[in-house]
């Protein structure tokens, strides 16, 4: 029975709740659908004293009575008012109109309910709570709309009294300010990317405006004096105080504190507490405006910069000084927040008053600052920044049509106020130039672009009315007479105007200054042209590049080249491309002017040495390098336009000798090497002309240089001499090998072709070959010069070079002059590499090989100079083998019946292989006989009869073969293997010396390692040999055999397939050695090899 009663009561309660909800829904629908005027009348008739009795049924008064009762009951019981609030939000959003931004019914009802403090608290708290609890974009949008109307009630509606909202306004601000953080979150997520730009959603825009309105009214609770009076009517002391507020001066903070007492400290600090959210909001507004509001963006950038400065100061302020920041923030944000609203349809109607205020403010503070009346000049600059930012924000809000109308009405007025900001005076006809703040310059430039040059206005209207430009351009041109921040701003403006205007008058005025006798005028004119080039790639211009190329710009390249070259290094790819094109055009225009080329090289040299320029381009850092090649890569395109190199080569060669330490010139010449080759005789003539008068380094200076005992002055002189000796060699190295092919060229060989090569007088001839030989073989010579000269000697025709080098090598060997020996070897090796068989088959090469044998027989220690010379001999013999084998393959069809091989005329065919350098080396390595191995036919006179070949010499022969394996070309690999491997495989077991056997196996290992699949026919025999030496050989032989086996097992598949039959035996041998051999290193190697062939 009791349970039944409980269920009955529960059912009745649910029915009662449902009835209330239904009734409430009807009531809200009745009230929110009523005409605002009729609803306001009903509210006026129904006083709070009449709410005790129920009005007549079906009337608006009854609905109001029910609503009041419901809200009061909910407030007393602390029940949610969502059923009341949500319909109001929906109504506020539905009734939104272009002319009236906020719903009238909701505002009237809330104003009426707010008259009761209890109802106000309940309803306001529910409003603040619902934005955070309801994840519904429609509700959030209605909330932002309604709250903006409640906060800005004076603008929302002027038809009905809003006494309830007015009475509770400060409390309402305090409650709603707690929602700023949530609104900031909505804004941060309310963007979409389109074409690289952020575009806001409708909700994000509404949330941003809601924060702006809230923060604007928070500034009004701070005790800042009103700014509504016109600035022209404010006293001097008052203006000084505003200036101090705008710049944050400590002195004016105390004045402001005394004049702005407020009772509610907590309210005053609400805006300050939300400084970070405001900064984030401005940052988002900046991103949203970038696509289509450039002037507004400039204002936003200044505001954001100012907020960041305030934020930075806030961390350092003491508690007693925070009010300074509060006053500063409130005084400026009051204007900024109003100008930043994204949807403010009433703002355009009152722009004239705001524009007048800001222009008057600029005039006042410009005059005050320039006249020296301001006690704090920084304060004057700060206040001017504030007014300029406001102007940017105000003018940047207008669309094209509205801006065009505004310019027509106020363009001249704005230009007369804005332009003096660059100069610090209040009249356009009285210029006293000053270096002003960069922010001021940027603000002025942006405003003048929008107002004077009209980049946003259609081309038809912009050319129909150019009054502002006609009035201001002469003044801007005159400002090019100074070199300061003002001139820089003017440069930017004039470049932009020249780019967008079809009228060439401005450009012609700039070009006139290129010929001015005043340096500053010329420099500024060049800067205008450079800026024009930089921005030309960013726009579709009315003035094409070709038109100003033909306007006289190219008349004086000395003024334009430095700027063009720097722009080529711009990090902006479009600017870089435009500047590169311009530079090539300038150079082509002056393609017969050596002076312009020298000027280009000077600019590159200066830039390369300029650390400041590297910093400006962002290239400085650890491991960073300025790439001069960025300009030099343009040189080939220019060089194709040069028709007469004769007029350019002389001055270029003169320049490199005048500045021998400048590597940029050498790099430049390398880019035109093909053209230099076509005029090689002229190049070489000028090179020899400069070398005739060059001094040789004397013994004392050379000793001081080598020993490091010279004075600082001597060091500089000797270093300069080093560069001078290197210069001609560097130039010659750029020329192709073919210039040395003509034996009849007097400038290359002179009379050397007819000389006795044993005569030391060959170094006195004034020809290129003689110069190279002298630089290479002169006794007192810089090491770098000697090496480069020896390398270049290798290019000299073998018919001239080999006899001379043979003679020098003979003298050096007799006197054991190791330095000269190494020079000869370097030249010979280079000649064998670049000339191949032409060098090998010279008659004197027979004597060269005998001299190499002699050097290889000298006793030496590892690392000493003799050992280094012997390494050179080994490489030289290896290159002879490579040249010989390459010739036998590459020139098989053209080989004559009788050819010269190392000095002897022999029949081609089988004798070619028997009597080659390769055969000689193999025989010297493998023969154990006591009698001489080298017969007179082979040119060997190594020892007397009965004396064995020294072990060290035989090891050198092994190293010759190893070096040949490393250096041989693909065409020579097969004949090398065919002639070498069978002989070595057969000879290993017959050789008595263990070290020689190990050396032969090492040669076989190198052959497998370097020649790869070419050794495949001999792979099986090589494996058998490696197994034999592993079982019976010495420790060195075993190590060499293990390496040989490892090389075979690591080769290509065809070699692995070839040795697969012997792997079973190999596994047995490796298993035995890995466990029994006394050498730990050998055991480890064999264990690894065993693991490779053992299946798991």
UniProtKB/TrEMBL annotation:
Leader peptide range in chain numbering: none
SUPFAM superfamilies: ARM repeat
Gene3D superfamilies listed in its UniProt record: Leucine-rich Repeat Variant
InterPro entries registered for this protein in UniProt: ARM-like (IPR011989), ARM-type_fold (IPR016024)
Superkingdom of origin: Eukaryota
Protein name (database record): Coatomer beta subunit
